[in-house]
Write a structure and sequence with these properties.
The complex is a heterodimer of chains A (165) and B (593).
Chain A: H1 3-8, H2 10-21, H3 28-39, H4 44-54, H5 65-74, E1 86-91, H6 94-112, E2 125-130, E3 142-144, E4 147-149, H7 157-162
Parallel strand pairs in A: 1-2
Antiparallel strand pairs in A: 1-3, 3-4
Chain B: E1 6-11, H1 14-18, H2 21-34, E2 41-46, E3 57-61, E4 65-68, H3 75-84, H4 127-132, H5 137-145, H6 148-158, H7 170-179, E5 186-191, H8 200-207, H9 209-223, E6 227-232, H10 237-252, E7 268-273, H11 283-290, E8 314-318, H12 319-331, H13 333-337, E9 347-354, E10 360-365, H14 370-377, E11 387-392, E12 398-401, H15 411-416, E13 425-430, H16 435-449, H17 455-472, H18 480-494, H19 498-502, H20 505-513, H21 515-523, E14 538-540, H22 550-554, E15 560-561, E16 569-570, H23 580-584, E17 590-592
Parallel strand pairs in B: 1-2, 5-6, 5-8, 6-7, 9-13
Antiparallel strand pairs in B: 1-3, 3-4, 9-10, 11-12, 11-13, 14-17, 15-16
Helix pairs in contact in B: 5-9, 5-12, 6-7, 6-9, 8-9, 8-10, 9-12, 16-17, 16-20, 17-18, 18-20
Classes of the chains: A alpha+beta (165), B alpha/beta (593).
């Protein structure tokens, strides 16, 4: 599905998220997370759609788009920009760093020809650094989409990334 | 009632039956009669024990020995060996494949496992497994025999302190929340374990979720809370899944919901997922996040015990604190207080990471020394290198040099030398680590995670990072050390929450214990540990180089030239100092200076 096609789905995606978590202020972060999970990011249209569906003054639930944007931009797991088909998250925390993370990160940047925070022009890859993933026993750690790779050595990086289409 | 010294449970699932389970039982009975053991040993039928693939299967208690693949012909030998002579017959015993667990191995000599006791031992998705290990016994005792005040008394007497970092006495916190007459009250479990290097809470949630749930129900009863939340970070999807299963099972068993275990006490739990914000580990930020706001902290007082979630009294403890509670109730406050030091009781889990032989989780009694944790439990430094520093307490903790190896690990001792207990991250660093680089690293983390609400933290951490980056790049200036010291003081004293107040600690502690390294960077433009790239250069030692070309082929910027079987050369102008040549060289022909 292209980004344009996916955007047509936004009202129904938001509706199912609101039905699941409830049309309340406290459900905003779960709703945003859900939209982010389905679409890969939170487009501006989704923010207006969430506002339309959750802002119910009769129930004393007041939501503005600016509030939603402030939430979406605050939490690291939420993205307001489209990401590539595969997202490489590199753990940049100290335990991984001490165990040779820097060399691995160089190898990843080299292989993808991306810097931290960038998405490749063909939309295949996004490279993001992340805080601790909590698997420090096997650092350095690399997360590609949902797959965790531990004890990574720089020379393994091309093989790991080659698995993804 | 007849007393049997041993029970034999034979699996009578269809698969085992088809493999002769009934014949085996008959043969066992006959042989026990023949040996005159039938009044001592009872044979029972049971449902599935293992996979039945090598059936028939049986378990012998009290030893808990699991036998498979027995035929009726084997019975006389088994009875004579096991039940007459007391010898386990190894050839029928199930071969346990040693599980490779890189995070949590078998307990080492100096470990005492209280919080981690069930992790890896029981099936976390089966409440029966937990109940078999005395699970929910403490809850039964609390609801049946104790008043809320007695529960608080017991926890106070145990000396249990918050395991999330600051170490506030748990019983005192509960007392504060109990004494406020404002309902409803809420209970929160902080499972937003964000400290780099700390993953003990994840393991407890994934491996023994019911211990946390039981601890929370007991705490809720003590303070009078009716609704609880477990705030778990989104980076831990498995923990969230396990928790949700566990909560549903507890509800089905009447351990959560209305009138728990037939008492008049009602309490329910919900899991809330974070969305990736380190600062949400701070309790007021966490509360804001549950309310659906940006996770920004606010000033205290009022403390959450008085005005917390939705303005109501709220008690907040972390995963490990709650997981200790059922054990304290079952074994008594004296048992818990018998471990640890005068002011720091019980055990603490640590996640050992970095340049140590056995990385992973350990649980030790408080008051143990750093040396014991690193050398006796952790197996010492990898590759026979020398110890340089231990970073303890996460990004708000400090780096301790060798002279503190014999320091007692307890709340007060750690704080007195500029580190802190934190949530239990322990990063061990060897001689190849640059302490300025480490300080820069932690500052990079905190400035990234600063929520931006208060100025000292938002701008101060940024400025600190800029100075540290400058020093690492070889552009350090005279007076930078003093500037760092001043700025650390300003940020530490004026920030709103623990994140900003603690952010300077890695800088302060490295400045205190490794000042000479800062000076070498600034004055001599030299990185003693050969880590900071701008201050090092790579060269090929002609006499050692065999001209194998592996370095030239791996160099990402083609800075290495040379003919096959002739010494190669690194062009210092092209070299980006990535260190790949050093890693790939098989002859140690690359030198760093």
């Amino acid at each position: 599905m292209t980004i344009e096609e996916r955007e047509l789905e936004i009202p129904s995606i938001v509706r199912s998220a609101v039905e699941k978590h409830g049309a309340t202020y406290e459900a905003l972060v779960p709703i945003l997370s859900e939209v982010n999970r389905v679409l890969g990011y939170i487009p501006g249209n989704a923010l207006s759609e969430i506002k339309r569906q959750v802002h119910i003054p009769e129930n004393s639930t007041f939501v503005s788009e600016s509030q939603l944007f402030s939430l979406a931009s605050f939490y690291h797991m939420l993205s307001t920009e489209p990401l590539g088909r595969h997202v490489v998250r590199f753990c940049e925390s100290a335990p991984c760093h001490v165990m040779g993370g820097r060399e691995v990160f160089e190898a990843v940047k080299d292989e993808l020809q991306l810097r931290s925070g960038e998405t490749s022009p063909d939309n295949k890859w996004s490279l993001i650094t992340t805080s601790c993933l909590g698997v420090c026993g096997v650092g350095p750690v690399l997360l590609v989409d949902e797959d965790v790779y531990g004890n990574v050595r720089p020379e393994q990086v091309p093989d790991i990334l080659a698995k993804y289409e | 009632m007849a007393y049997f010294r041993s029970h034999v449970l034979v699996c009578v699932d269809p698969v085992c039956l088809s493999r002769g389970a009934h014949e085996l039982i008959d043969a066992l009975q006959d042989e026990l009669v023949a040996q005159d053991l039938i009044n001592e040993i009872q044979v029972l039928e049971t449902s599935r024990i293992g996979g039945c693939a090598d059936g028939p299967e049986m378990m012998v208690y009290p030893e808990g020995v699991h036998y498979v693949g027995l035929t009726t012909d084997d019975v006389p030998y088994l009875v004579s060996e096991h039940f007459l002579k007391g010898r386990i017959v190894e050839r029928f015993r199930v071969k346990v494949k040693p599980a490779v667990d890189e995070e949590l191995g078998p307990a080492q000599a100096k470990e005492v496992r209280v919080v981690l006791r069930n992790c890896g031992e029981i099936d976390p998705e089966n409440i029966e497994d937990y109940i078999a290990e005395d699970g929910y016994m403490a809850l039964g005792k609390v609801l049946g025999e104790m008043s809320p005040e007695q529960v608080i008394e017991e926890v106070l007497a145990s000396g249990l302190r918050g395991r999330g970092g600051a170490g506030f006495p748990a019983g005192k916190k509960w007392q504060l929340a109990r004494n406020v007459q404002d309902f409803p009250k809420y209970l929160i479990c902080n499972a937003d374990e964000g400290d780099p290097g700390a993953f003990m809470n994840r393991r407890v949630l994934e491996g023994d979720p019911h211990s946390v749930i039981e601890g929370m129900i007991i705490a809720a009863y003590a303070i009078g809370a009716s609704q609880g939340y477990i705030y778990c970070r989104a980076e831990y999807p498995l923990a969230v899944k396990t928790l949700k299963i566990a909560i549903q099972q507890a509800r089905n068993y009447g351990l959560l919901g209305n009138d728990i275990l037939g008492s008049e006490f009602s309490f329910d739990l919900e899991v809330r997922m974070g969305a990736g914000a380190f600062v949400c580990g701070e309790e007021t930020a966490l509360i804001a996040s549950i309310e659906g706001k940006r996770g920004e902290p606010r000033t205290r007082p009022p403390f959450p015990a008085v005005k917390g979630l939705w303005g109501k009294p709220t008690n907040n403890n972390n995963v490990e604190t709650y997981a200790n509670v059922p054990q304290i109730i079952i074994n008594g406050a004296e048992w818990f207080a018998s471990m640890g030091t005068e002011k720091s009781k019980g055990t603490k889990t640590f996640a050992i990471a970095g340049d140590v032989k056995n990385t992973g989780l350990v649980e030790v009694p408080l008051g143990i020394t750093l040396r014991e944790i690193i050398y006796d439990v952790g197996g010492g430094i990898k590759d026979n290198k020398a110890f340089k520093a231990a970073q303890i307490g996460g990004p708000m903790g400090g780096c301790l040099p060798e002279k503190y190896l014999d320091l007692s690990v307890d709340y007060e001792s750690l704080t007195s030398v500029g580190a802190m207990m934190g949530s239990g991250g322990l990063i061990v660093m060897d001689e190849d680590t640059c302490m300025v680089d480490i300080a820069r690293y932690f500052m990079d983390f905190t400035q990234d995670e600063s929520c931006g609400k208060c100025t000292p933290c938002r701008i101060g951490t940024r400025r600190l990072l800029e100075i540290l980056e400058r020093i690492c790049e070889g552009k350090g200036q005279d007076g930078d050390i003093e500037r760092l010291e001043h700025l650390c003081e300003v940020v530490g004293q004026n920030s709103l929450c623990g994140l900003g107040q603690g952010a300077p600690n890695p800088v302060i502690s490295t400045l205190k214990h490794f000042r000479d390294e800062y000076e070498a960077h600034i004055k001599e433009k030299r990185c003693p540990a050969k880590v900071c790239r701008s201050l090092i250069s790579y060269e090929i030692i002609d006499e050692v180089c065999t001209g194998c070309t592996v370095c030239a082929r791996n160099c990402p910027v083609d800075a290495i030239t040379g003919e096959r079987r002739h010494p190669h050369f690194i062009d210092p102008d092209l070299c980006i100092r990535c260190g790949i040549c050093l890693q790939v060289c098989n002859f140690n022909a690359i030198s760093v200076s």
